[in-house]
Amino acid sequence: MDVLEQSLQKAFINKEIEGSHYDPKLIINRPEEKEFLLNVLQEEIDTCENFFFSVAFITQDGLNALKSHLSDLADRGISGRLLTSTYLGFNHPDMFASLLAIPNLEVRISAKTGFHSKGYLFSQKEYHSFIIGSSNLTMSALKLNYEWNIRLTSYEQGEVIHQIQHHLSSEWKHAEALNQEWVNEYRRTYKPFANNQKLANAVTVDQTLPQYILPNKMQKIALNNLKELRETGAQKGLVISATGTGKTYLAAFDVLQVKPERMLFIVHREQILNKAKESFEKILGEPSDQFGILSGSQKDTDAKYLFATIQTISKPAYQELFEQDYFDYILIDEVHKAGAQSYLKTLDYFTPKFLLGMTATPERTDNFNIFELFDYNIAYEIRLQEALEEDLLCPFHYFGVTDFEKEDMVISETTDLKYLTMDDRVKFLIEKINYYGCSGNYPKGLVFCSRKEEAQELSARFKQHKIPSTYLTGEHSIEERETQIERLETGEINYIFTVDIFNEGIDIPKINQVVMLRNTQSSIIFVQQLGRGLRKDKSKEFVTIIDFIGNYKNNYMIPMALSGDITRNKDNLRKDTFDTNYISGLSTINFEQVAKERIFKSIDAVALDSMRELKQIYSSLKNRLNRIPYLTDFIKQQVLDPMLIANKFDSYYTFLAKIKDNEGILSVEENKILMFLSREVLPGIRQHEIILLSKLLKETRGLTFEEIRETFAKSQLAHDDKTIQSVIQTLSLKFYTGGQKKTYSGAEIISVDNPQLIQFSSVFQQALHNDYFRKLLEDLLTASFYKSEKFATDQPLTRYAKYRRRDALRMLNWYEQMVDQNIGGYTYKDGKFIIFITLQKGDDFKGAQMAYEDELVDKTTMRWFTKSPRTLSSPEVKALQDAENWTIHLFVKKSDDEGKEFYYLGEATPIQSTVKQLSKPTQEGKVQNVVEMDLKLTNAVDTKLFKYLT
């Protein structure tokens, strides 16, 4: 049966029939499952040979979500068409202007009355796909709204696709081409009918009435937490809140509920004072003479609510104007700076009834403990992802853009200033910035540069291109900064070029574009700079973030910052680059293909487990917890994948001993046991070992085989004889051979001397007498269980999880490990055929005798070659030709740069018609036989993983 015919049978006749990527599919936005129409559209665009959209309503944010994908198509010489309308005045002139900036998109405007279509047609290599339903090209329709759409496929000869193509062709002929003249005329006559109608139907609001500000959801929770904290007798509290979530209003609301006699608000920059004072005046509602400023230029020392710069209030001459208990409520903004002597001196002097610290980034690199300063009282914490989920921030569209290249010159950390500011690069930057645009198409942007000279020169170059710009550095006065910010807000200039003075503490709500022209030095700074545009403002619907990605070593920090995943797990970073569904609400993250490859290259090359970095992460967590952290703490706080420590050191104990923070002493034998568990059990790929060890710790007499079976059954785990024997083989070390056997020798955990009763080995029993060993052991088992939660428990292998060769053998109940070199590309026995494929082998691929051309042809087909020399008569080939008696498991990795682990793609079967014997040249110039075949995967590979692998 033809594959498309089979898909139609499955969709409309019998759902039990095996499916394929041709299957008709109902597409509904499911935010909780991270499934969106947007993903489907992006995937179709990425693989198409041309496209045709017929969509009534389009918004700038909906268009933005596709721009990087359209840019990649343009690089491949692929273009498409869009048919839209002016129906109901929904489509804004700015949106039409944005369409003109897309070079590979031809646009026409239908004059048809009541044009209301929503259809997306794609011509793929061997078929057509089309999506028809309720979704317009708006961000809400693509990600949030409850919409119904159906995706169908057809061959060229199909009747329905013929009807669609004929109809679109006819409509296209009668539609008007979009050009600048058309946009100008439309803008002149534009009347947003729908919006006017809404306003006409709305209740009229008396503008003379006071406008009350109420706490948002986050602020209500934080206020309640602060209240409860004080009721316990606490005198200090720390609020960790993402930039733009309303920390200043939160502080004002808390002052309102506390009603202090005197309040002091401390900031680190003078230009913040007036805005903070204005916010408090709105919330507290007291006469303006009750609010005052203490700074270098103003001295309102008698004010009930005093707003001071740290530079002024830290001076003894000003501190002496106040008794130590004069202020009963003190607030510190951007409190992560409080490790400076000026802050410490001020806090040592004053004795308020309550001290509140506020920051978006409590982590410091100088080992000063902010948490200790506030008695470890974290009243509330909300980071970027949560703030987006709660709709506290302006939606953003991030674009990771490929930076300028010319011949052999690629932008990097060492690029000379003359190349950073050369005219060709400036033109390139302007073209890309205009392409990705901004809300409203009139940019009010911050541009972060790598150095002062670059900021100054690029500002001048932009002005030469008729783009009003300026630059600001730390050398400019407060007055000059405020003047230029005002010019930006009023639209007198489009851009302020800077290095780092806007990283924090500056509030410019009207910013609708942030451009990054520098290497990412830290994920904290990245989020701070991105956050400059996230404050909500009625002048914008979203903010555009354009990140020019050069050949930087630190590119791996980009997915780390955007996802908030700081576990330093490389597989997580790769996934957060090729699958960006983790971002919430109406925001999107997009990477151009070349930029994406640069990030992957950085992830492959970087060492994320340096002693310096591990110590820094450890110290930061220790500061937060006020105690020595253990493996489970790293998982719960999501600050480090414990496997980095396990792979870097023999055990966590070895790490603690190295930094002289161990709370006890272990013998060599005890530490070897922990080393084995750290490397083999901690990854969590199978719960059985964790469950059995936990049970044996309680049942000191040991367990019979049947009791083990019962234990596994109660945990709803596989409990057949082979699985139980595999677990015993693992914990008794009988499974291990070669280097592993030698390394783990003496670390046997269970004894098999008495097969009727499984007990701890004598070495392990002796180790349990050491309380510190037991503490480390129980922590490791708990951490292992947490990690095991991402693996399936109803089957031995989890699709898309990663496994080493020995892991795969163990999960499939191999009695004994095989050395990796002996396995090579595959091994087979007892009805199980395990294949390991490295797709990008490189010139120095280990063990490659010839140029194997293994290829993931499509999402369900792998082209694969046997070892050489092999013929159609070789045992493994005969086994594969008798595939009904063999289960084939397919493991794949992109290249050896990823390490020793492979993605498990699932089960596969050979397509017998493709099995053929070939003769191929070896590296030595000889010719050897090899067998080629296509393997059909039972389940199609996830689209995003497929794109990453290929």
UniProtKB/TrEMBL annotation:
Top-rank taxon, per record: Bacteria
Name of a matching Pfam family: ResIII
Domain Helicase ATP-binding: 228-380
Domain Helicase C-terminal: 421-577
Database matches in InterPro entries: DUF3427, DUF8090, Helicase/UvrB_N, Helicase_ATP-bd, Helicase_C-like, Helicase_Restrict-Modif_Enz, P-loop_NTPase, PLD-like_dom
Signal sequence, start to end: none
Alphabetic keyword roster: ATP-binding, Helicase, Hydrolase, Nucleotide-binding
Transmembrane segments: none
GO annotation, cellular component aspect: cytosol
Gene Ontology MF annotations: ATP binding; DNA binding; helicase activity; hydrolase activity
Protein name: DEAD/DEAH box helicase
Organism this protein belongs to: Enterococcus pseudoavium
